[in-house]
């Protein structure tokens, strides 16, 4: 079966143009623009014999019935929300690729034994609420109304308030949960977001497991003082405490090995003005790995360093755990199927772990799940320089199409 | 001559209530609230035989004529703009103290040979434009229209735009400059903003010199990457570069001795969201001391560390010098006069440098200038916990009153 690259390109470029910020692509979850992007995809489906449903948190389901429609669905998908100042492929690739598979089947009048379902998950990126894969977590019963009630975005809006702006009712989010029995399997096609495929000159990545993040906020209370009149030895400078922790976290991740990574993505000092010693500082910390113990060792170093920095600098430091997802191993049968498909289609492939988290890691708790990667030039993502060639995109969508049709038993 | 402490207290408390932010005292220069505070003081002067003038940048002059009114004026004053989330004494003390001296003379019908002039300088704090003592710099010819044309506040407003919101015309600021011949001397009464007087149990500080800041912004360009998918050794993390510089600056200030201090008051990372390695970071750096060479040594370390961090982390770092004021020594005759006045009034005093910058450092280039400190509890200022007792405030105002009346030759 073929794919229509012109259509794919048009849809991806159109999505890239729907942004909250002129001159860049920023489409945070639950924004008016994120909603407009969803509605654009829904409009595209209207000419086809597809059933469309959105759940209470905004997850979008586009279903093509099977000959035996009571059977569990062969599912696939990704997300379309973005980070701040994003690239155009992270999320849209798997979403638009899935759409293309459904359109082709409709256009060519092809039936499958199993029903097919494209899922576009809401709020995959943590950029708005410091909380990732919100839609898939709710759907798989990993998050619920209670666990989400304290989320706040940078403007201080709660999830309830953010959802209300696009007409969703937070009090209904527990209805988002579905049952594992509804799913035969799940596939996610995504850009790699790292440099391995490009370095190894491979077109397809077959994912063996997904590293998951430990995320926390470190709140450091010191004392705001006049920056000219306060001698160095009298200071309780919260920013310097934060700087020490950031460097210790980096060292710990390098020491941990097993491809463990750790990031302090913000170090927000208050009041943050020229003539005041910072009295308060907040760090966003993200620690990831496939190897649970290596990942845990970084968290342990952070806890130890907090004690040392507290004592040394007279600060008071609170460590607030935001989320701790478990690393996920994907089933060998899915790795095998995707590898075979890549080989049959003539694409060089690499069997590899995923450093980034994905909705697939929650779907893996429901049903056999596989992930397909295509290369990211220079490993860059979450950045306007993110780039994958249209040839590589075609390869990824064709592999996805093949494994989906095999699972769905095309007639 | 007496002072009316009830009136002083009322005016200081009233000024503390004029704020742009509910529940705290924030009255940045050129804000509507800063303007309201100026107008409040002007209203208070109306019943008295005082002439009131504001110049093109908003400096406020309240003058009581002398018997020989052509003589140079005995001047004194401070400022009333504040930092973000400020205390109530930093600035208002010297302003309200000066007002009280004028009110007493008017009420008691006392004449002086020399004219008296209270100056309330505009925009002393650097909190709005990362640029301190703007009003006195213009008045003393140390800044001019050209040197100020690039200033921007946190919202990106230029000084011209900020001034326009309160009806001032930036194109006229060069008319603010006055001539040294107009001034016989200048006194500034201020809280210490450090813990020395409190530690030494002294009521009055007699200032020998004013430490001046070197201020700069360090702009660090790295690369924004996915925080999960980018291996540690591929990263060009701007925040970590900033953390290393902040700690190096601290160490350099401690090593420099001579009471040199250095502060990184902000470390602003972009995009600053949980799942992105920071691609950009900006540091605000403030280095101060009375000892020029010690101060310079910290700046040199910063330059060296920038080279090292650039090489080590693959970053591109720009050091932008914002201002470099010269430390100022105050004339011995003023130190002597203030010491004598404190002694005559029965207050224990300490001869000491000022760590903080003040408008007095620019006035010192015009005329013999003296500074009087009162204690700051625990050395805290630029903070709502800033505290000086009303007894200490009375002591400071009485010393100011005595030296002003001696210089003005009360009849």
Automatic annotation (TrEMBL), chains A, B:
<feature type="domain" description="Peptidase M20 dimerisation">
    <location>
        <begin position="216"/>
        <end position="311"/>
    </location>
</feature>
<protein>
    <submittedName>
        <fullName>N-carbamoyl-L-amino-acid hydrolase</fullName>
    </submittedName>
</protein>
<dbReference type="InterPro" id="IPR002933">
    <property type="entry name" value="Peptidase_M20"/>
</dbReference>
<dbReference type="InterPro" id="IPR011650">
    <property type="entry name" value="Peptidase_M20_dimer"/>
</dbReference>
<dbReference type="GO" id="GO:0016787">
    <property type="term" value="F:hydrolase activity"/>
</dbReference>
<dbReference type="InterPro" id="IPR010158">
    <property type="entry name" value="Amidase_Cbmase"/>
</dbReference>
<dbReference type="Pfam" id="PF07687">
    <property type="entry name" value="M20_dimer"/>
</dbReference>
<comment type="similarity">
    <text>Belongs to the peptidase M20 family.</text>
</comment>
<keyword id="KW-0378">Hydrolase</keyword>
<dbReference type="Pfam" id="PF01546">
    <property type="entry name" value="Peptidase_M20"/>
</dbReference>
<dbReference type="InterPro" id="IPR036264">
    <property type="entry name" value="Bact_exopeptidase_dim_dom"/>
</dbReference>
